[in-house]
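Help!! Second protein's tokens look totally different from the first
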Amino acid sequence: MGQMRLVIVGAGGRMGRALTRAVTEASGACVVAAIVREGSELLGQDAGDLAGTGTLGVPLSDDPLTAFAAADGVLDFTTPAASLWFAELAAQARIVHVIGTTGWSEGEDALLPAAARHARIVKSGNMSLGVNLLASLVRRAATALDADFDIEVLEMHHKHKVDAPSGTALLLGEAAAEGRAMDLAAHSVRARDGIMEPRKSGDIGFATLRGGSVIGEHSVIFAGEGERIELTHRSEDRQLFARGAVKAALWGFDQKPGFYSMADVLGLNS
């Protein structure tokens, strides 16, 4: 194929600008449209100028329907409600839809597979190679270590992040639950305050920290009697998520319609 034609949605935000930079730096892809919300003060600005890549000749638009019809894929780090709408449009256009959006409710998440009957959806709570490798290691560790090892997931992000636990923390918690062959929802502990009962065997705890400009830090702790194993990933550059999203889009171009994860993209499920 020639250049994969990609649409950036949420193009005016920090991740949207990072995605624009990542596409312009990638081999085999180009930005053909950049979408912002209706009425945005950024409408009409050049996406490249906004992202600091130099003029691309792609003005910011609020018309995703037209953009999707002339594209091969869309990169989406927006909100669950917006991503569901974009999933419908991507299914109609039968293109690749890479979703890095976090903060999904169980009901919202369940609506995506229907769109994957026509689109190629790649969805992950984190698009980085390191985090997805970490999830694989967490799954293996949870399988190898019995319930005498308690599992805790600790995450920290910048003060502007609104969803908690983070999508990455939930991805890691799900990996741990899969390793133990149990349902995360039934064993997830999200808050501890005041006088509590002793920790239940098999629970997976989550602790959330917010502050400063931290891009993302995640640790999964396996705490046993007299020993502790900690698996950690620290994100130092937001561009790594953007580069992962572009990699996912290029991979998805040759796939059949379906619902995929970054583990599929990176070959971690084989």
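Here's the second one for comparison:
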Amino acid sequence: MTHVLVTGATGMLGKYVSDALTRMNIDAVAVDRSRFELGNPQGIFDYIMESKPAAVLHLAAETDVDLCERDPQRAGIRNHLATANIAKASAACGAWMLYVSTSNVFGGSGTFEHNELDLPCPLNYYGRSKLMGELEVRRFNPINHLIVRAGWMIGGGRARDHKFVGKVIEQILNGATSLRAVGDKYGSITRASLLAEFIVWALAQRHTGTVHYSSSGIVTRHNIAEQIVAALERQVQVASVRSSDFPLSAPRPFSEGMTSIYTPTLEGAPQPGNWKDDLTQYVETFLQ
């Protein structure tokens, strides 16, 4: 069997990827969730060995940053050990593997922006567990993998977007005249639909290595909220507040902003744009 196995196919990014693969007539199979459970790394290994895919797109993860902080064992099993077994099985099958990682592997050094040559230094258990996943991919499938680090993911539309951007859009559409958003923490955004196109391109090329994939420009959530207001052409006041006004279990870095040395050099690859343009294009499609 020579198919592409997709983990996390029903999530925000996974839905975009699955739709893109369908449009390209690529034989993709979403994992059987009754047999593929991130909390059971050995079962994941066995499942892939039975499936014998030609490629594995590993999009699934425990992405609840605060839950990971409260339960580091869950983070370690689902993001580290599960990824290690996916990498082992992929290598045993001769399958190319793509692993979606996160800008949260950075932040502990206090640096404002991070490219692919900067050494990761995560500040919380979510970032650490994803970094451990990266290390296992490199260890077990060293020459047949691509690691893509994404920023603050935006996408999904009204049906799937339950994160910051979706909540802000909904509040504005429901008539809010004022909003508050954190203005002292920085990061980069990644439009999920663009990343999906890049993943399909990388699959066709069997591209390898580690790349950052995010819109240009490092921003705060306050910047994002203001741009959403502008895109919707509403009269809404957005107040900048401190992160300490929203106590959370997991520490957030001052900045996990990313830039890329390598992505712009990839000829023919779908490229992210400026953060304002990418965010505006998403807002315009939110209700579709």
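Reply: Different proteins will give different token patterns, so don't panic. The first helix runs from residue 12 to 23.
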